[in-house]
TrEMBL record, chains A, B:
Keywords: Hydrolase. This is Methylmalonyl Co-A mutase-associated GTPase MeaB. Its EC number is 3.6.5.-. One of its GO terms (molecular function) is hydrolase activity. InterPro entries: GTPase_ArgK (IPR005129), P-loop_NTPase (IPR027417). Belongs to the SIMIBI class G3E GTPase family. ArgK/MeaB subfamily. CDD domains: MMAA-like. PANTHER family: METHYLMALONIC ACIDURIA TYPE A PROTEIN, MITOCHONDRIAL, METHYLMALONYL-COA MUTASE. The keyword Hydrolase applies. It holds the Pfam family MeaB. It comes from Solibacillus palustris. The keyword Cell membrane does not apply. It comes from the Bacteria.
Amino acid sequence: MTMPHQDQSALFVMDGVKGGHDGMSYSNPKKFRKKKQEVLDIEKLANDVRAGDRTALSKAITLIESSNTEHKEQAQKLLQELLPYTGNAIRIGITGVPGAGKSSFIEAFGTMLCKIGKRVAVLAIDPSSSLSGGSILGDKTRMEELVRQENAFVRPSPSAGTLGGVHKKSRETMLLCEAAGYDVLLIETVGVGQSETYVRGMVDFFLLLVLTGAGDELQGMKKGIMELADGIIVHKADGDNLRPARRTMQEYKQILHFLQPSTPGWLSTALSVSSMEKVGLDKVWDMLMEFEQTVKKTNYWNIRRREQTRDWFHSMITDQLIDSFYGNPERKQQVRKFEDEILHGRLTVTQGVNALFD
Amino acid sequence: MTMPHQDQSALFVMDGVKGGHDGMSYSNPKKFRKKKQEVLDIEKLANDVRAGDRTALSKAITLIESSNTEHKEQAQKLLQELLPYTGNAIRIGITGVPGAGKSSFIEAFGTMLCKIGKRVAVLAIDPSSSLSGGSILGDKTRMEELVRQENAFVRPSPSAGTLGGVHKKSRETMLLCEAAGYDVLLIETVGVGQSETYVRGMVDFFLLLVLTGAGDELQGMKKGIMELADGIIVHKADGDNLRPARRTMQEYKQILHFLQPSTPGWLSTALSVSSMEKVGLDKVWDMLMEFEQTVKKTNYWNIRRREQTRDWFHSMITDQLIDSFYGNPERKQQVRKFEDEILHGRLTVTQGVNALFD
């Protein structure tokens, strides 16, 4: 139901894709114009992302990461537009202790992939963040060669306030990169306990970078990380370090043999690589291709992805439940009060919980 | 405010510790009598438990495990009475794959402890449950010697419907055993993935039983269990198996050296034991005593227990939130609907969650 009106906003409304606007007044024409433009922007942004425009992709990721309510709505609209074009990349998680050379590996490996025609998107840890353990030389010297590649897209994330550089929006960022046509996704994370399990839950292949000296390396490792890995790379296998690196690789192969495989049907293995001399990078790609072939054959590839999506959904439900529960300041205070009573032995845990929910 | 009344129930009410019964009618005297008796019972039960009466302790555990609403209230009342007398035992979790000989170890170790004057309570897996991996000879031949000891209390739990024989009430059962004066608690669990992490979260010391052949053994092991262990026992170190068991023990010691300790300040170690020949059991007790001394010195003993109680409280809150969310059948149907939409790529995960909570 449109009414004749002199104001331009009315024309916008009449042009609108969705004509129904019952119950709305024309008293705020500016709001209407704004709304209309934003709808167009999201569509354009979606198209630009799909066309492989890197600036558009950056903008889209920023929108996804925004905590502004209006942005959140737009982000979901954008993501829904792009959903049909997602899922076609191989998703690779890369972890390792600080100093293992994650960024130099990604730089060398990504550049090699670009040169053989792959389109590579990297979710990297921002080295300017003090906790990341990244290069102290700053962002500019990081992945210098890779960012110059036409087929590469590097998105740095601050590790502060996140789980080892990975956060709740990383999964959605991955989907955006896939819609933009990237076929290899490298997700960097620094080992901070839970981040590896989290990243394992969103990738197809989980790669662990280590240095020579299996003992020392294992010593510093968080629990169970090795068992999450589909592949281990003994890094910096160059110069005097070449022989020890080969030996370490053998040691890891032996240990991996004892552990349960991270991916059913795939025997996790170890390789030695020099990113500086660019030796062994092709073997890493061969391993990934063999992995993809093996795991797609059993259909576990799709099964895992469905499971990951389902788990994501249910863990977001749980997060939401916990957030709204603890988000209430009065409730929070009550929790603290009961916690105190329990820790002082005046109340059983069950009594505390029952009292909270009464 | 008591009123003269001919019915006997009135006398009960007048005798009641808590006299106030405003708003209640005398139309159901039987209910009143029942209430009164139960109040007395809980107090008596608490006293009997504290006096070390094993029948009372059994009854108390059954009450704790009951899902009847009235029983639940009584159970919490009982537990609160007993709370001041808890916390004085060493809590030991015992795990291992089926066939590792958990029950024969507990039988031999527990009996030895009783003979040196310790009071030992065992939360054991009921072998009549098919999933337990326990003896097929049935309950009677299990821990036969131990149950005859005056200082022992053995409580079997069905493993069906529980996490490897351990369930949500096991923590409260432990508290009851402590109130009853038991100073060593042995909590048996069979490895079913998450049960070990769960048990690790409720004990001071986590003991892993393995057999010879570290490779095979590790192969069958769930992820990360080894890293949870404070000690590993290579079991059945007797006869022809003695030498291989010693070798395996050395292998485990080496592997443990590579892993992060489960308890800060304590270097997890391996021992070889024969429960049949009763060899090495004293070494296990020495290890436990050394552990207690070491960990109490740094105060981590208390810190961990407080953390465990706090975690227990918050995980019960989360459970309660999830239960009430999914417990609603309408909600459950909605979740399934949105899950379907998401898995078919028609909705983003965030949209699905937002729609659910709107």
